[in-house]
Design brief:
Length: 376
Amino acid sequence: MQPPTVGVPTEVKQEEHRVAITPDGVRELLHAGSDVLVQSGAGADSSVPDEDYERAGATIVATAEEVWARADLVCKVKEPLESEFAHFRPGLVLFTYLHLAAYPGVADALLDSGVTGIAYETVQLPDGTLPLLAPMSEVAGRMSVQIGAHLLERHNGGRGVLLGGAPGVRPARVVVLGAGNVGWNAAWMAAGLEAEVDLLDKNIDRLRHVDQIQMGRITTITSNRGAVERCVADADLVIGAVLVPGGRAPTVVSEDMVRSMKRGSVVIDIAIDQGGCIETSHETTHAEPTYVVHDVVHYAVGNMPGAVPHTSTHALTNATLPYLAELSRLGVPDAVRRDPALGRGVNTMAGQVANASVAEALGRPAAELDDLLTAG
């Protein structure tokens, strides 16, 4: 089998500064036999110049059109925008964050064009962990506290509260909803800044793990409607970090709960790229990241890690590269047969939805991946 040509276009989502591969990643793909096309300037905002890609062996091409047209496998960071749908064609493989539950229009375009869409966020190991979501979840979780502390400052519309307080003054109360990678990192950072932190989750084992590590520095609380209502009402900063792999995030914080919060409190909905877990949230951008509802500052940027692209690009490539190399070396059918975790990442193939959770979220029937691979 002739290894596929891998293409890496510049990201076009507003204020998205990451790039899907590093020069070290290029070298690994070349070792696997693939040619790698990188759009000129794709890595500039991540502090990776074209020259570094060229030294690694990549071919620099001038336009996105050329990348998409010449590549068999396109590797991106964020879900494609409508302006990129024209590049879709049968037989193309797209490997990126797709978040189809939140962006059904992207799903329609992939299905109509016959693109094989493999989503980072649904690649899932047997123990349930999401290895390609984890690095960006860690970055987003840590960023949420940094951003929340900034938004709590009075000139940014907040209550004028210092996250860690001061001697003789109570610190801010931070409520984190969800104890997965996002929530755990958010809680850890908030505790490190000496805030009072409540971490809520339905999974007792996960809470037990946090409690054993933090030894009481983070208060762990079993999540239910009553507990969420009480915690949110008393919070200075609420961080929504709830995830359903492949599906739409559940609404955990209702509008009435937001209405109960103190004037100038802040909510950050990190789950917004899966539809959001706070009823009053809608997706915002880095250019206009906040808005106010019921006197509460809302932040719901869908690509938070894009604000720290150098860190994010390297963290993301560290996680995605082994899977990308598998796809390059073996092709999609053999790669997903050999690695069931990668198989769970296949969201669309041959005009059908191949992931049950994604299909349910989209209200579409799910095809068996084995049947699609056999037919192909």
